[in-house]
Design a protein that fits this description.
heterodimer, A: mainly alpha, 3 helices, 69% helix, elongated, B: 603 residues, mainly alpha, three-stranded antiparallel sheet, 27 helices, 3 strands, 1% strand
Chain lengths: 86, 603
């Protein structure tokens, strides 16, 4: 397998993990919205309500930065990262 | 100070700008104490901020195609994040979102999840790869990846349909705010708004829009957060509302139980002015079915990833790496406002509902409430209404009605904040609507000038001529949008949501599969775009004309149907026709690695 194919395989793997986390917090948990709302979440808000106001939104922010860092590592590993610019 | 190493000086320049804006707010506050009238304060806020944007637009003027179309590809990640946040958060986000949450609760909050979750798709599926491609516009990617003028033309059509639907709503919003703040009729205010919008983008194109959007973000975020924190402190709900409103949310739940949701009769509702609504849904309880919530969130997420005015912001970063990081910053800056909207809705609702607070009106006598100053003002503006349906002399929960915009516009006044805050909010709303309108008009004009005129009609046109065409189109599209906005055909929020559905119907899969599926070919993309857009639009027309719809897909989520048709037709047609040629496959390989020159830079 060429260097490029290996790079793409790892990139695709990272995409799948990222999309899986995205799916859980944008779609998965809201299948159980009514049940989850009975639970008290962070700062004392009802849990589902908290996810829609802050939780899912904040997780998406963190997820994107995490994804960007992981992808950079993959690019560096195979020598595909860009030089000297940021 | 501005020329030469402007990019290196950005933090300093915008730091001074922010300080100057805060000083301006303080000066206005002092002027108010000294007796300056509310009207003059409103005019000062709008005129001062718009003048600053116009100056930035003039300083950013350019005659180079690279600067005009992609701001010279040198916008640093954090600043591009701010510009994208302003580009993204429209007049609807700013003025109508807290109101939507106030009235509809959980079911509406699918939009919060959808309009943020979409950025995960942008970051992981598209933005870095389109940046590597080195295109000027989104149709530029479609046209080069799939080849041929028909694919490019279809992409231009989808882009224009989606963005134009969106832009009329934004020009409408600038007109509404300008007409309130400057006290002129809406029909003229729309054109005042339009001229302000064009001042930012005409001379500098993307470069001008980028630097004004950063300035607009700073104004709109201060204008949104300051009142939320102030009100929260003033009514003693907590100094950091986001972490401290659990008791208030629970208290609203108790009050809802105590008052009960009483349905109004048809005859009674007919007396309520159009556009106003009462509280009929629980504030924090789950009041929508899982599919209603998820389908709306999903449509907004896929729409986010297909809207060209957002995608083209990531063409302006210096590198692929920077494009990825920049998506993260964009969402962070959006998060600051979106996470505050539910808090504002909570504070606003509690202020009005709780009889133990001095601002509460439910349970008070109708005559007393009708004598309150702010009630009279907003009643006159057609944004508040009380009627004693049951004739018992007190205001019940089902007897108080409010417009969605009033949650943002009137809450500062209800909570007893000085008028200077209301002026600030008007400036913020104006900034939000202007920045989005600028991004959208530029996206349409660039697609028409670059893809239709330069790539299809006259490939030999010189740069100077191309930029003249681009600017003429900018003005023409702006005026067309303003003319339709002046007719006031549709509400702000509905047309915004439609724009997402149109974009995802036609563009989501052709864009994503262009990067992630090498086998996708021209015929497939053409089928995907054409059938996706047609079936999505057809479904909308069907449901609007009394069609029952299926699978719970409504006129707000028709993009789910459109994009499903798009996916199936694109895959089927690609597979029954021949695979893309070797050069195209090699191009896709190159798009997938960040290093090396951009695809279009090589040609």
């Amino acid at each position: 397998m060429s260097k490029q194919e290996q790079h793409w395989e790892k990139t695709r793997g990272l995409l799948m993990v990222t999309l899986a986390i995205w799916f859980v917090f944008s779609i998965g948990i809201f299948l159980f919205g009514a049940e989850m709302n009975e639970v008290t979440g962070p700062f004392g808000y009802p849990l589902t309500y908290w996810f829609t106001c802050q939780g899912s939104l904040g997780i998406f922010v963190i997820l994107i930065f995490w994804f960007a860092n992981r992808q950079e590592k993959i690019d560096e590993e195979f020598g595909f990262s860009e030089r000297g610019d940021d | 100070m501005i020329k030469g190493n402007f990019i290196d000086n950005l933090p300093k320049v915008y730091g001074i700008y922010t300080g100057g804006f805060l000083a301006f707010i303080i000066i206005m506050a002092i002027a108010e104490q000294m007796g300056m009238s509310a009207k003059v304060i409103g005019i000062c806020f709008v005129a001062f901020t718009v003048a600053i944007y116009a100056i930035i637009g003039w300083l950013s003027r350019t005659a180079q195609a690279d600067a005009y179309y992609v701001a010279g590809r040198q916008v640093p990640t954090v600043f591009n994040g701010m510009a994208t946040a302003a580009d993204w958060m429209s007049g609807a986000s700013f003025v109508a979102m807290a109101g939507g949450i106030y009235f509809k609760g959980y079911g509406y909050m699918a939009l919060l999840v959808g309009w943020t979750g979409g950025y995960v798709l942008v970051a992981s599926l598209l933005a870095p790869y389109l940046r590597k491609f080195g295109c000027y516009t989104v149709p530029d990617f479609i046209g080069t990846r799939y080849g041929g003028n028909l694919a490019r033309l279809l992409a231009v059509i989808v882009l224009t349909v989606a963005s134009f639907t969106y832009v009329t709503a934004q020009i409408n919003a600038t007109g509404t705010i300008a007409s309130v703040a400057l006290d002129i009729p809406f029909q003229y205010a729309v054109y005042v708004g339009l001229v302000s919008i064009l001042l930012c983008s005409m001379l500098g194109g993307m470069r001008g829009v980028t630097w004004t959007q950063v300035a607009q973000y700073i104004v709109l975020i201060i204008a949104y957060l300051l009142p939320v924190f102030w009100i929260s402190n003033k009514i003693g709900a907590g100094f950091f509302p986001h972490f401290m409103l659990a008791d208030e949310v629970a208290r609203i739940g108790e009050l809802e139980q105590q008052f009960g949701f009483v349905a109004n009769s048809k005859e009674n509702l007919a007396m309520v002015p159009k556009g106003l609504a009462g509280i009929t849904k629980a504030h924090s309880a789950v009041n929508a079915t899982p599919w209603a919530f998820i389908s709306l969130a999903l449509a907004m997420m896929m729409g986010t990833a297909s809207l060209p005015h957002v995608m083209m912001r990531y063409f302006t970063t210096p590198s692929v790496k920077a494009a990825r990081k920049s998506v993260g910053w964009s969402l962070f800056f959006i998060f600051l406002l979106y996470s505050s909207a539910p808090m504002l809705a909570t504070l606003s609702k509690l202020s009005l509902m709780d009889p133990t607070l001095s601002t509460g009106i439910i349970g008070k006598s109708v005559a007393d409430v009708q004598a309150i100053d702010w009630y009279q003002n907003w009643n006159q503006a057609n944004l508040m209404f009380i009627s004693d349906f049951n004739g018992n002399g007190t205001v019940e929960l089902n007897e108080f009605f409010m417009g969605g915009k009033a949650v943002v516009l009137a809450t500062p006044e209800i909570a007893g904040l000085p008028y200077v805050i209301s002026g600030l909010v008007a400036a913020g709303g104006m900034a939000a609507a202007m920045s989005t309108a600028d991004g959208l008009i530029l996206a349409i004009a660039n697609a028409l000038s670059h893809d239709l005129y330069y790539k299809i009609i006259d490939p030999k046109a010189e740069t100077a001529k191309r930029l003249v065409v681009a600017r003429v189109l900018l003005v023409v599209i702006g005026f067309a949008g303003a003319t339709i906005a002046a007719m006031e055909i549709q509400g702000i929020l509905g047309s915004v949501i439609w724009a997402f559905d149109f974009a995802m119907s036609g563009l989501f899969f052709p864009l994503v599969l262009g990067v992630w599926w090498k086998r996708a070919n021209r015929e497939g993309a053409i089928a995907g775009m054409a059938l996706g857009l047609i079936s999505g639009a057809g479904y909308l027309i069907w449901v609007r004309n009394g069609g029952s719809g299926f699978l719970g897909i409504t006129q707000l989520t028709f993009g789910i149907f459109g994009s499903a048709v798009s996916l199936v037709s694109m895959v089927v047609v690609s597979l029954i026709t021949s695979e893309p040629n070797a050069a195209t496959q090699k191009m896709v390989d190159e798009v997938r690695v960040p290093s090396g020159r951009t695809i279009l830079g090589k040609q």
